Amino acid sequence: MLNKTISYGLFVLVISSLLVSCIKKEDYPDIPRIEFKSFSKINNGLGYDDKGLLVISFTDGDGDIGLGSQEIQPPYDTASMYYYNFFITYYEKQQGEYVAVNLPFTNNSRIPPLWEGDGNKPLKGDIQVELYINNFSSPYDTIRFSAFIVDRALHHSDTIMTPDIIIRKP
């Protein structure tokens, strides 16, 4: 009887090991990777465009993307470039060439912490950010954005570029 119980226990152990080894564990580099997913304009009901939604997909091997609202000590303080962790540059197509334009406001933002528990686990998902898209002081109606993210270890992701966006001016 004891021999049967040991054999059954070993059988269950072997089957369990096989099942666990079949579960694919996600493995991503610790440096974040991003890809452009979509861009859509938000209808404001006024006949011109002023905001849009940029969606990117991301992966991060150590899952350290995000800053809490209370995290304002160096290097994440307001005097540092790393106060933000989602960096967005606005471009206008002027005489056929794209030119980076410094707007009177920033589209950069802070991605909140995306991990649960103690972190340090691979992350994969989408990030959506609302952007101002209409430079009202400019006559140009074709724009695009570049974007990259930075994780807590200050690893910079690759940079993505949106396709052309045609905006309706007032």
Description:
With 170 residues, the chain is mostly beta strands. It has a single domain (26-166), classed as Immunoglobulin-like, CATH 2.60.40. It is built from one helix and eight strands. It has one helix at 2-22; strands spanning 33-42, 51-60, 86-94, 97-100, 123-132, 142-149, 160-161, 165-166. Strands 3, 4, 6, 7 and 8 form a five-stranded antiparallel β-sheet that branches. A three-stranded antiparallel β-sheet has the order 1-2-5, with no helix packed on it. Strand 3 and strand 4 form a beta hairpin. The longest helix is centred in the N-terminal third of the chain and has 21 residues, at 2-22. The chain is elongated. The N and C termini lie far apart (86 Å). The relative contact order is 0.25.
Give the SSE layout.
Elements: H1 2-22, E1 33-42, E2 51-60, E3 86-94, E4 97-100, E5 123-132, E6 142-149, E7 160-161, E8 165-166
Give a short synopsis of this structure.
By secondary structure, the protein is mostly beta strands. The protein has 1 helix and 8 strands.
